[in-house]
């Protein structure tokens, strides 16, 4: 069974830090671009950060609002992706979701015609004094 399980959320004061984790099971993240999204109440879902697979050079991309404060990383051996969040602001308050995505192509010696797109249930991050 494919699962993405986020953890590490909580209540933190402005200026504080949190580290989110996303543990994958039922598939290997090695061939997937991994991303963090967030959704605040009454707002649309926002892409926060992405890290590509080795095929993409493990390149990273961030929303302008989090550049310089958040860092996305991955540990393929642990099948886990992380989001280090520093200098947190009240506007960072949201439910943070992990996403794994890849298109069709050759993976592990066989061709997969399907686009794969998996989501976690999310973890709440609240930044408040």
Report on this structure.
The protein is mainly β and about 130 residues long. The protein is built from no helices and 13 strands. The strands form 3 sheets. Strands 2, 4, 5, 6, 9, 12 and 13 form a 7-stranded mixed sheet that branches. Strands 1-3-8-7 form a 4-stranded antiparallel sheet, with no helix packed on it. The termini are far apart.
Brief descriptors of the model:
129 residues; mainly beta; seven-stranded mixed β-sheet; elongated
Number of helices: 0
Stretches where pLDDT is under 50 for at least 5 consecutive residues are none
State the end-to-end distance. 39 Å
Strand content: over 45%
Determine the fraction of residues in helical runs and give it as a percent range.
under 10%
**Run of helices and strands:** EEEEEEEEEEEEE
Q: State mean pLDDT (0 to 100 scale).
A: 96
Q: How many individual β-strands? A: 13
Class computed from helices, strands and strand pairing? mainly beta
Task: Write down the Rg.
Answer: 15 Å
Instruction: Summarize the biggest pleated sheet.
Output: 7 strands, mixed
The best one-word shape is elongated
Question: Which secondary structure elements does this structure contain, and how are they paired or packed?
Answer:
Layout: E1 3-7, E2 10-12, E3 18-25, E4 33-39, E5 46-51, E6 60-62, E7 70-75, E8 80-85, E9 94-102, E10 105-107, E11 110-112, E12 116-119, E13 123-127
Parallel strand pairs: 2-13
Antiparallel strand pairs: 1-3, 3-8, 4-5, 4-9, 5-6, 7-8, 9-12, 9-13, 10-11
């Amino acid at each position: 069974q494919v699962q993405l399980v986020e953890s590490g959320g909580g209540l933190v004061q402005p200026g504080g830090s949190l580290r989110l984790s996303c543990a994958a099971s039922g598939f290997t993240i090695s061939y997937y671009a991994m991303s963090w999204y967030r959704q605040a109440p009454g707002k649309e879902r926002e892409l926060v950060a992405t890290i590509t697979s080795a095929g993409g050079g493990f390149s990273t991309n961030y929303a302008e609002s989090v550049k310089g404060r958040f860092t996305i990383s991955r540990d393929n051996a642990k099948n886990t992706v992380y989001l280090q969040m520093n200098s947190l602001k009240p506007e960072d308050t949201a439910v943070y979701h992990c996403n794994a995505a890849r298109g069709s192509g050759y993976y592990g010696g066989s061709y997969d015609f399907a686009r794969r797109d998996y989501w976690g249930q999310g973890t709440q991050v609240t930044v408040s004094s």
